[in-house]
Amino acid sequence: MTAGLAAWRLLATLMLALLLGGGLAGCALLDPKPTTDAADAPRPPPLHLEVQAAAPLKALLEQHLDLARLAQVGDDESLDDAEWARLVAAAPAQARELLQTEGYFEPQVRVERSAGRPVRVRVTVEPGPRVRVGSLRLQTEGPFDKRLAAEDKDAVALRHALEDAGPLAAGAPFRNADWRDTKLRVLTRLRGAGYAAATLADSSAAIDTNARSAALSIAVDSGPLFLAGPLRIDGLQAHDEETVRHLAGFGPGAPLTETRLLDYQDRLQKSGLFEAVSVTFDPEVESATATTVAVRLRELPLQQATAGIGYSANTGPRTSLEHTHRRLFGRAVTAHNKLEWGRDAQSWNGDFTTHPGEGFYRNLLGVQVERIKGDTDTVLSQRLRLGRTTDTPRLERLYFGELLRSRQSLEDGTIIDARAYSGNAHFVLRRLDSVLLPTRGYSLSLQLGAGHAQSDAGASGPFGRVYGRLTAYRPIGANWYGTARVEVGEVIKRASVRVPDQLGFRAGGDESVRGYGWRELAPRRDGRIFSGNVLLTGSVELARPISEKLPAVWGAVFVDAGRAADEWKGFKPALGYGVGVRWRSPIGPLKIDLAWGEEVRKARLHLTVGVTF
Length: 613
Description:
With 613 residues, the chain is an alpha+beta fold. It has helices at 2-30, 55-64, 66-73, 81-100, 143-149, 153-163, 176-192, 241-246, 258-270; strands spanning 48-52, 108-113, 120-126, 132-141, 199-208, 213-221, 228-234, 274-281, 291-299, 303-312, 316-325, 333-342, 345-354, 361-373, 377-391, 395-410, 415-432, 441-455, 458-476, 480-493, 524-525, 528-529, 534-547, 550-565, 574-585, 588-597, 602-612. It has five domains: 14-38, no CATH class; 48-126, Ubiquitin-like (UB roll), CATH 3.10.20; 132-221, membrane protein fhac (Ubiquitin-like (UB roll)), CATH 3.10.20; 228-299, membrane protein fhac (Ubiquitin-like (UB roll), Roll), CATH 3.10.20.310; 303-612, Porin (Beta Barrel). It contains nine helices and 27 strands. The N and C termini lie far apart (98 Å).
């Protein structure tokens, strides 16, 4: 009776456990042995993989072999001897497939596994000869072929560009990655040339292992050439559609190339009217002959003010205030005013320009009042300019007539008043990798002017003025960067004619000849400094990052030379040289230079620091 009651109690306990804890919990009650946690189970020892091959191939195999992946997993994978044998046996074939992607189609691969634990596997590779590209055949289909047959010059130029688009060419090592890149670049370049619906029709790579040569073939279907139709402009609130249309630079029927659209987008961005710009089109084949170009804009605020503080070794501490109104009195006119107040220089510049019109031109009215205090004189000048200006990504042009008055006050109380009326043309050409922080390319500034001058201290008469400044940037070696600059200028006139001091030239100081005071390298008469009729300066600078941890901080060495003079006869440049530190900040390079002036036999610190807020 007691045994039966115990059995019933055991059965009731099992049923209750099944109801409350589930079948697995109930079964656990039947097993008196504790369950072993999977994390505590024995794990296989880690795999040690050794690949013996040339560095690029070694990296390839260590990244993609199944054995390599296993070595990276850790020790939570459980493999038996059969699985190890399978992986080792498969490794040679897998390695050969990987090596073929690099152009090695006859490699010798040997895989060895050591007995015992830990597991050690050695993969030895002798790649053998490499297959190279024997020929690359490019076929085009569609409307592009028709233009090519008609000897359209743009189509002929594009054909040559397509043939040189990718990294693979006759004689180059065959690599799968380069083959894919070549096909992609051909297609991308064709689409960028206006054939936005171009597709890859066919491609093949025939490998001749005996000749160790690859015959490559690419066939592309160009699809139609997309031509510009109407502009659809979205986002305008204050400004005129006419301004946006003038900045396009192309009309209906123009091929919609990537360069054309990017240039349009760049002009809109540089107009100073918009905060965000997008120029796109939908490549719908049915509307290819008159494709709608979508221009999406977000305007900048109508008014904007900026204050700044800074310091320059030339003019000392300074403050500035700028104000921009992008639609003055409700008209398509931008007004930009800048007031700058420093220890030795004060100025007000007011520019009033119309929004871009046909040919990207703007009409310009400019006013400037400037006072500059030198060591021996103070010059107050007023300018009034009226002209036209146009900016493109590579070239700025400014044509204007100018009225200039210069009032020079000498230390002894003498005042020299001079005036000039002139016509001028200024050009700025840039071929730089970065406008803000260039390291490669060049910029050229050229100024031409002619007019009539009169002065209290000289005769009246005609004059001409020429000025040029060329700055070149070039990387030198792995970490060095070189900068070279030359500037030359001359006022062409009779000796008796006196032009306003602002039209003459002075040298010395930052961005000129370091080691000397600002504007002090100029002719002296009776101990007083005057602007010269001729100017020649040059500079060579080498710079490099100070350390890998501070790539934006550069050290520099430099040599400067030059001066301004009354005439070229007897011209003797002053020499300055020294060392410096540059911080290539997001707002431009900030510089500290210590320079020795050979002519004055003393050192001078040159510092240019500015903060805008």
